[in-house]
């Protein structure tokens, strides 16, 4: 049986994209789309999806408020957050509320697919096994693979640490159209400016970012880094 999904997203364009993404992942079916929290609550009185894809910023309430309502009336429904919200209190509330995954916009199909497939695997383990091994139990709590994470192999140049690299990669989706400087990344990631620049230059070689000189108000050019389209 297919996993029935309800999408809660006030931007109809994004809701349609999420719907298309869902339909492209085998084993899932979109049965409803709600554009407000109230509409979602009304639909949940009629239908009972297995999974809700939920945005935080809705016109009539926050998604975190809707989570509370869902947990009170339909505790068996699972939730994946798909949102631009990255505030610590919202992320923390979602984590404590048992959200299955938290995807930060803009969303790539690979990240979306990875989240749904990981959820599907967890569901299968719970539905088709009477007992689970320690490794299987641990995997239920293991974080979903992040869209920008990858393991640096032996070919990585000296001075590139996998943990630091993945930390920077996971920050890149938050970089806006105006790009970022090594100084800005240094403040955001907690590494030194020289370290930030070294990793950004490495990511250019990996085609994860590209650089350009941008002239500021005082006329002095600064080197800015921009996300490539697939990030």
UniProtKB/TrEMBL annotation:
Domain of life of the native organism: Bacteria
Pfam annotation, one family: HTH_64
Modified residues (4-aspartylphosphate): 55
Keyword annotations from UniProtKB, A to Z: Activator, Coiled coil, Cytoplasm, DNA-binding, Phosphoprotein, Transcription, Transcription regulation, Two-component regulatory system
UniProt feature coiled coil, ranges: 109-136
Domain Response regulatory: start-end pairs: 4-120
InterPro entries hit by this protein: 2C-system_Tx_regulators, CheY-like_superfamily, DpiA-like_HTH, Sig_transdc_resp-reg_cit/mal, Sig_transdc_resp-reg_receiver
Compartments where located: Cytoplasm
Annotated protein name in UniProt: Response regulator
Origin species: Metabacillus bambusae
Taxonomic placement: Bacteria, Bacillati, Bacillota, Bacilli, Bacillales
